[in-house]
Amino acid sequence: MSAAAHLGRRGGAAAWIALVAWAASAEAAPLFAPSPPPGAVAPAKDGAANPQPGATSPSTAVAPAPAGPIPVPLVVGSSEEALASLARLDARTREDPDLERVARALPAEERAVAGIRSAAATAPTPVKTERDLAELETEVLRSEERLAALDSALGARAQQFQTMSAELSRLRAIWQATGASPETAAAPERVRDRVAMVNARIGEAEAGRQAYLSHLIDLQDRLAVVRADLGVTASEVRQARRTLDRQLFEAESAPLWQALRSIPAGDDVRRARAVARLHLLSVRDYLATGDVGIWLELVFLGLLTVGLQLLRRAPVAGARDSRVASVLRHPLLTATVAALLLTPLFQPRAPTPLFAAAVLAAAVPWILVSREVVPRRLLAPQLVVTALFVMDRFAGLAPAHALSIRLMLLGTSVAGAALAASGLRRGGWASELREGGWGTAARAGLWASLVLLTVAVLANVIGNVTLASRLARGTLSSALAGMLAGGVVLLARAALAAALQLPAAQRRRLVALHGPLLERRCGQVARWGAFALWAWSAAASFRVAGPALALASAVLDRRLSVGSLRVSLRDVVAFGVTLWIAVVLSRLVRFVLDEGVFPTALPGRGLHGAISKTAQYAVLGLGLLAAIYASGVELSRFSLFAGTLGVGIGFGLQNIVNNFVSGLILYERPVQPGDIVEVGAVAGEVRRIGVRSSTVRTFQGADVIVPNATLISTEVVNWTLTDRTRRVEVAVSVAYGSDPELVRHVLLEAVQRGDVLREPVPEVFLTRFGESALEFEVRFWPQRFETWVRVASEVRGTILRELARAGVTIPFPQRDVHVRSGNELPDR
User: Fold this and answer.
1) pLDDT reported for residue 764
2) pTM summary value
């Protein structure tokens, strides 16, 4: 390292020293301010005396520091407060957990950066290989994140040191002035001793502050050097990536047939040992930091194992899918797979080798679990993919352009292509994949893998090892990620199916009625989520995630200008996505309220529907506002549109608004879903009450759409508003000469044999004397409203039989017809 470079790196430490020295001499708000003596004069901002003695700050309610010495009667009390403040300052400077954490982590970071620089220096120059660059980029990124966190911690400590220095300077000025005061010199000896003790304690605190400052500056200087070294390496890696991307389709090695003729004596063993040692050191240093993510992952593993063990005892609906029930048979192995796959979530700062080891470790228990989950013909392909992935990882321990690595890469590419081809042939193992969308997507992925691995074989043969490595590694990583993603989906489905079958869940009306629907919908969400994670993993494996994001960002940021209107595709997408989320969320809210909450909480048939619809439209309204804000459009620009809309409502949309406002009958509830109503010539059952219109299903089976305004402005006969009972009247005519009491008794007996309520009591009335018969009317109440027509028919049949049995006749209408002969017709 040159002297100029070293001086440049040390410049950051010098700047920190100057900044902290300035902060120590600057005035700042005291951290621990002792109570000022009565009558003390507080300094103003310009240094003049404040004419209001004893004034306090309105924000802190603590008086400013006195400008002069402390009066003798207040020395003892003030000394106690000063000593307490000094004790707190001393505790902060002597034991700072954050600073010690940085001091413990910094050596590991120094070794990690040194290892990264060593790996970058030993990689082939001037263009590094694809595998080396991928590892270096990942390590550089993670080191930058860790160093940034340490720098932030040191910055916070520097701010704290500034506050401590200001407080200590304030105390020193007060008590030195108190010790030099003539009033103190003439004070009793105990007062002078108290002042001397406080000044001595301030001196000790000054020494501790200087030691803390020295330690802080040392850590800042070391961190600045490490960050500078890492910055140089990061710049070299970025330049190498740009160069490699430009030469991706160029042959950088000799063709394979030429390389086989002259096998050079390389240092593959030395290189493999160096890379392995670097990986082990990075993992060891990370484990030595004691990251809390490790313990969180272990706690998650234990809780998930216990949870799956409890779910295993539930009567899982395995009859619907035996694979779902099979996952719960091995709770520990299944939980281990899930915990290992979530390692990047629990330990985002872990080194790359630890992530690779977690993926490999997750593949082993998944293969054990998959013996009962995956069809037998798919077990062998899983084992082959895992073995090829392990071979590729071990190949990363040696130089990429070494002949042994090229041959290993060629072997893995040929084996992977052969595996894909065997699955795609007629009757191959891919025929076990389910038909439909996901099965078709899996077979399309096999075709893509076959093409990519074939290209990798050809590129390796002609000498383009970089392209061959990227294609082969990306394909194998994507295949393994897809296999593990399928396992995660099965795990989620199994856990959900078991949870829905628990007695506590089955007591919920929503689960009892819609359990299969919930399981199906959650399964779809799990599949799409797993697919999104797999797609991102595949894009990262092929090194296209970054360029794809940059291209998408460039396309979304392009703005279309039409006059004063400036809109971008990003705004349109943000508006559409936010509105779609609001629509889905509103439907979910209404479904949960209608099916799970209100049927048991609110007994009214119409009130819960009104509240759920209001909640749905409220969520939609909030979602619309959020979508407008997400698109970057200011609501003030809608003022003209709102005025135009108001005019349109006043003229062309008044009927629509009238029906919409009439929808408030949902809360008044004169009509509720399930009621039997008559609206004009329409009679039937109310099936739905919407915001604009309602649906009435007639007894003939037709659905009639009735505007809500009609239900408000016209007469509506509601047969079931207060109860579901209806009186039925049956008219009966008997011949003159019949005994009315006998007829009444027979009619009452006939009514009581039917499906008729005993209360109210059935009644029989002699209504009128007809032209040819006595007319009676039977009034009764069927037990169920829905069956009144059938009950009335049965009662009429019973009456007919009983009257005939009692000898009572029902007369025919009598008419006298006078017929004239043709001779009596008048002449015309």
Assistant:
1) 87
2) 0.57
